[in-house]
């Protein structure tokens, strides 16, 4: 049953295949049998992961395992402080990860809420109201405005029916339905006007339909199945940290063995060497890394919130920095998701209402201005929509009613011809409602000329010029139908016969607008020059054609610039929409996403192809129209096969599988469904494409800061390792005591390192390629870090060796070495923070760094000069001259980097 192409069957064929009587419906006696055969009309949810399992999975990454081992070892050797700190860090990170993954598990339960509790059906000739879960294939269901469609249905009777299908198909406007039409097998979901689909909403009219699919067999059921197929993958940062963890685990093991064996061969005490080796192994692991990553991501999330991006999955913040493809829905993200009049076409005169090059109505000749006013007046009077002050956009208006009609009222309001201001002057006294067969709507109005003269003298005079003395009728509708009922055409203040030449000209202009993906409505008027009584019936004939409204959902302000910025940043923008290819092509070309509209590809052209064929298409094409949920997932998978990091935006139920599949899913905050928000990593509170680009910049900044932190920590740790390895060869058997090693590690992993996580973005951050998804987070800088550590070690060992050879007490020269190492690492923070010179960077953009370095400096002085800490760390009080020498040699790393930066800007 689920393989039937119901949109290809006539009403009678559908009823026959479902064994349904069109007049009486199915018999009550077969309901139970069909329930057993097809199941209840509800979405099935596979068993989710156990919350305990989700929590334990947070401890499976390599870096976390390494830190767990470090916590155990520090506990064994008596460093309970480090054990407690590492444990707290790991538990906090596990709780954050658990809360985000557990919340994502709720996506299916949210999707199930789309089903409605009650529905009106006909069974055994009797109408009854039942639970929507109890309907079965073959049931006859009644629909009216405001109803959710409870199952997939073949419509059998429609009356001016319009259904809002945007959540399922991406079609931005309500779709007119017609039960009598029949379509080809390959007809797109969005054009099947004889079908109604589960989860969509009846926005206008009424209908009767036969249920053809229920539960998981419906279109929304297929989406539910896709949602449960893909498991959450690791983010690029998680992959990099995992790889770094493996490297550090191996390095720690090697360090333990080498340092322990070297000490034993020199005849050092076994216990002391074991403690020293273990201390170095712990020091090699940046225990502050999870904290810094969490802080950097949390601060980035807060900054993103100020830019209208709400982060739901913390680790996804950094993923944006690696994004090299943005797949975006058109409606509501690239465009405003509000139907607007963009062109007014009067006889021979075109007025563009584009944002960048809008025409000024006052620039028209007086006669054309009057005709324009009449056209706007007719569009707003022959109209059932109205405007209300917007709750979301200050100073703007929301449309109440049909979006297309609302566009006419809105444009009139913008040029001071508001419907609310003229309704009392032009009271409606008769009407012929819109019908899909006629494709027109007409209203007849009395005119209060005295009030009109006070309100708008120009219109008053113009109506008199047109010999309109009593009443006026306005008709709007499809242009081809409208001109069949018109005998004349208005051109300025002249009226001409609507001959074939005029009709040809009008239709040519109509076709130009339609080819640009616009929805076109014509407007005409009729002079009703007599009194109207209760028995009056208006006839839609002998009218005068005024002009045409060209409408579309226009692009958002700033999107064109955002797409250009993304291109400069090495990010490809792809439009994926369920909308018409003409509309998609027009908007994409206007935004420089494509050069010509022939580049638009239909979603069905991806179907039935091999992965290699799909990959070739996706490499070349950037605009996709009439796509299904399956098509969207196909495109995302293809990009991921090509090694791309993909961001996907969407607002509807149809977007949810692709949002979940993408490396980072971005749901719409204003128009987004609960389902799309549940599976997303981030929610765009303003539904704006420009916000995505701003968020990408933030993601790159976070990646940079985490990378700076790791490079700083590893270079500092390398310095400690070099000192311990080279010291014995220079006559310094044990340069640092175990507790001194842990203290240096605490200072470097502490406040200075954390302060690097709040560094502002580099100026050229959106002029470079996206962060690489493959490889480790250090990239090719291992040699740079090893050499940096060696240089710090040399600057530390040379003066210390000099002090030792001056027959200085062991405690003093070791304190000098200890202090130079700590101070060198503090100076190194200024080297690593930016490609710029420290003297050009300034302190204002990150005062936390200067504060952190100052506090760490004072803590080191406490360790040197306070007797209690001297006993613990094995230090002695340094003379002022010795302290100054320590500071002088420790600052050499800063001056060396300043010289290098003069010649190498990419350091």
What attributes characterize this protein structure?
single chain, 907 residues, alpha+beta, nine-stranded mixed sheet, 36 helices, 26 strands, 48% helix, 16% strand
In short:
The chain has 907 residues and is α+β, with helices and mostly antiparallel strands. The longest helix has 38 residues, at 689-726.
- Unreliable segments of 5+ consecutive residues: none
Characterize the main sheet: 9 strands, mixed
Question: Given the helix and strand composition, which structural class is it?
Answer: alpha+beta
Overall 3D form: elongated
| Portion in strands | 15-25%
Number of strands: 26
Average residue-wise pLDDT: 83
Q: Cα-atom Rg, whole angstroms?
A: 36 Å
Distance between the termini: 65 Å
Helix fraction by DSSP (H/I, runs of at least 4) = 40-55%
**Helical run tally:** 36
Strand-helix topology:
Layout: H1 11-17, H2 28-38, H3 51-56, H4 62-76, H5 80-104, H6 107-112, E1 118-123, E2 126-131, E3 140-144, E4 152-164, H7 166-169, E5 175-176, E6 195-196, E7 201-213, H8 219-227, H9 236-266, H10 270-284, H11 289-306, E8 309-311, H12 316-319, E9 325-328, H13 330-334, E10 340-346, E11 349-352, H14 366-381, E12 386-389, E13 397-400, H15 403-414, H16 419-422, E14 428-435, E15 440-446, H17 449-455, H18 457-465, E16 471-477, H19 479-484, E17 486-491, E18 494-497, H20 500-515, E19 519-528, E20 543-552, H21 559-568, E21 572-576, H22 581-590, E22 601-602, H23 611-620, E23 623-625, H24 629-641, E24 646-650, H25 656-661, E25 664-668, H26 674-679, E26 682-684, H27 689-726, H28 738-749, H29 751-755, H30 782-805, H31 810-832, H32 838-841, H33 847-865, H34 867-873, H35 880-890, H36 892-903
Parallel strand pairs: 9-21, 9-24, 17-20, 21-23, 22-23, 24-25, 25-26
Antiparallel strand pairs: 1-2, 1-3, 3-7, 4-5, 4-6, 4-7, 8-26, 10-11, 10-20, 12-13, 14-15, 15-16, 16-19, 17-18, 19-20
């Amino acid at each position: 049953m689920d393989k039937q192409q119901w949109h290809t069957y006539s009403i009678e064929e559908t009823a026959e295949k479902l064994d349904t009587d069109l007049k009486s419906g199915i018999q009550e006696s077969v309901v139970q049998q069909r329930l057993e055969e097809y199941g209840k009309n509800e979405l099935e949810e596979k068993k989710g992961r156990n919350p305990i399992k989700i929590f334990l999975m947070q401890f499976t990454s390599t870096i976390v395992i390494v830190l767990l081992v470090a916590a155990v070892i520090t506990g064994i050797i008596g460093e309970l402080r480090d054990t407690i700190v590492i444990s707290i860090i790991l538990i906090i990170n596990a709780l954050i990860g658990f809360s985000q993954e557990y919340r994502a598990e709720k996506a299916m339960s949210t999707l199930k809420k789309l089903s409605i509790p009650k529905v009106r059906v006909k069974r055994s000739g009797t109408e009854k109201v039942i639970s929507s879960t109890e309907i079965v294939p073959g049931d006859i269901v009644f629909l009216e405005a405001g109803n959710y469609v409870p199952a997939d249905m073949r419509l059998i009777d429609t009356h001016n029916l319009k259904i809002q299908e945007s959540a399922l198909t991406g079609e931005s406007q309500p779709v007119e339905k017609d039960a009598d039409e029949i379509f080809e097998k390959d007809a797109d979901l969005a054009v099947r006007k004889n079908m109604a689909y589960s989860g969509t909403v009846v926005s206008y009219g009424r209908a009767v339909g036969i249920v053809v699919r229920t539960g998981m067999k419906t279109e929304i059921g297929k989406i539910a199945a896709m949602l449960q197929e893909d498991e959450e993958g690791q983010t690029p940062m998680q992959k990099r940290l995992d790889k770094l963890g493996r490297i550090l685990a191996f390095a720690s093991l090697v360090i333990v063995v080498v340092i322990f064996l070297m000490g034993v061969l020199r005849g050092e005490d076994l216990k002391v060497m074991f403690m020293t080796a273990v201390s170095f192994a712990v020091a090699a692991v940046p225990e502050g890394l999870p904290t810094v990553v969490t802080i950097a991501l949390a601060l980035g999330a807060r900054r993103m919130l100020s830019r209208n991006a709400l982060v739901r999955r913390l680790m996804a913040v950094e993923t944006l920095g690696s994004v090299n493809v943005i797949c975006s829905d058109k409606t509501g993200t690239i465009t405003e998701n509000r139907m607007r009049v963009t062109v007014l076409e009067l006889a021979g005169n075109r007025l563009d209402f584009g944002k960048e090059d809008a025409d000024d109505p006052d620039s028209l000749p007086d006669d054309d201005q009057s005709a324009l006013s009449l056209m706007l007046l007719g569009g707003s009077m022959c109209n059932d929509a109205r405007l209300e002050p917007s709750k979301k956009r200050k100073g703007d208006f929301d449309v109440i009613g049909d979006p297309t009609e609302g566009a006419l009222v809105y444009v009139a309001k913008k040029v001071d011809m508001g419907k609310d201001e003229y309704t009392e002057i032009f009271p409606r006294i008769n009407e012929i409602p819109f019908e899909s067969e006629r494709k027109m709507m007409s209203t007849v109005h009395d005119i209060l000329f005295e009030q009109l003269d006070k309100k708008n003298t120009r219109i008053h005079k113009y109506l008199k010029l047109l010999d309109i003395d009593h009443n006026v009728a306005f008709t709007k509708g499809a242009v081809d139908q409208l001109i069949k009922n018109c005998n004349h055409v208005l051109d300025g203040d002249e009226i001409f016969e609507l001959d074939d030449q005029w009709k040809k000209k009008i239709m040519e202009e109509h076709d130009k607008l339609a080819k640009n993906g616009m929805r076109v409505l014509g407007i005409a008027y009729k002079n009703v020059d007599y009194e109207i009584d209760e028995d009056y019936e208006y006839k839609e004939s002998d009218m005068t054609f005024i002009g045409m409204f060209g409408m579309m959902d226009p692009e958002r302000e700033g999107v064109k610039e955002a797409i250009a910025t993304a291109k400069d940043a090495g990010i490809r923008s792809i439009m994926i929409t369920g909308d018409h290819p003409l509309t998609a092509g027009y908007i994409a070309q206007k935004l420089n996403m494509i050069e010509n509209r022939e580049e638009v590809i239909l979603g069905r052209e991806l179907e039935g192809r091999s992965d290699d064929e799909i990959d070739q298409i996706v490499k070349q094409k950037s605009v996709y129209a009439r796509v299904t949920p399956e098509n969207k997932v196909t495109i995302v998978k293809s990009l991921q096969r090509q090694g791309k990091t993909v961001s996907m935006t969407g607002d509807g139920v149809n977007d949810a599988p692709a949002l979940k599949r993408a490396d980072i899913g971005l749901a719409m905050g204003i128009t987004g469904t609960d389902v799309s928000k549940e599976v997303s990593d981030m929610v765009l509170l303003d539904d704006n494409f420009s916000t995505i680009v701003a968020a990408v910049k933030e993601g790159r900044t976070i990646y940079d800061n985490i990378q700076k932190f790791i490079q700083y920590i590893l270079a500092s740790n390398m310095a400690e390792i070099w000192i311990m390895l080279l010291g014995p060869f220079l006559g310094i058997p044990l340069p640092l005591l175990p507790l001194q090693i842990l203290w240096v590690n605490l200072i470097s992993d502490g406040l200075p390192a954390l302060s690097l996580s709040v560094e502002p973005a580099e100026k050229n951050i959106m002029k470079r390629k996206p962060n690489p998804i493959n490889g480790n987070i250090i990239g090719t800088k291992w040699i740079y870090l090893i050499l940096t550590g060696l240089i710090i070690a040399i600057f530390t060992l040379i003066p210390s060796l000099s002090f030792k050879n001056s027959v200085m007490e062991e405690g003093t020269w070791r304190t000098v070495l200890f202090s130079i190492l700590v101070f060198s690492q503090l100076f190194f923070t200024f080297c690593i923070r930016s490609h710029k010179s420290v003297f050009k960077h300034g302190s204002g953009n990150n005062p936390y760094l200067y504060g952190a370095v100052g506090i760490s400096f004072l803590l080191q002085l406490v360790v040197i000069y306070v007797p209690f800490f001297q006993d613990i760390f094995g230090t002695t009080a340094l003379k002022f001259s010795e302290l100054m020498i320590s500071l002088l040699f420790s600052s050499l790393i800063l001056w060396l980097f300043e010289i290098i930066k003069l010649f190498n800007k990419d350091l």
